[in-house]
Write a structure and sequence with these properties.
By secondary structure, this protein is mainly α. It has a domain at 19-72: EF-hand (Recoverin, domain 1, Orthogonal Bundle). The chain contains four helices and no strands. The longest helix is centred in the first third of the chain and has 12 residues, at 2-13. The radius of gyration is 15 Å and the shape is globular.
Length: 81
């Protein structure tokens, strides 16, 4: 039983503790995701290598879970609010 509790706790720690809110001014095409050009416009310091690190699933777009993880990892600046 302790083993299962440890696994469950580890799973919870892997999930970002906060949600990243979509900023419509960044998501210019309105698809609910951030492309590299959209993200680089908002965060000029984001290089292709940084975007690749953010885009964990490799689909070419950053979803809100990936953005939350990127913020928590300091790949992008923390959002205000």
């Amino acid at each position: 039983m302790k083993y299962l509790t440890a696994i469950a706790a580890a799973g919870l720690l892997a999930v970002p503790a906060f949600a990243y809110d979509l900023d419509a001014s960044i998501d210019t095409d309105g698809d609910g995701l951030y492309s590299f050009p959209e993200l680089q416009t908002a965060f000029p310091e984001v290089t292709e290598d940084v975007f690749t690190a953010i885009d964990v699933n490799g689909d070419g777009a950053a979803d809100m879970d990936e953005m939350a993880a990127a913020e928590a990892s300091a790949l992008i600046p923390a959002s205000e609010g």
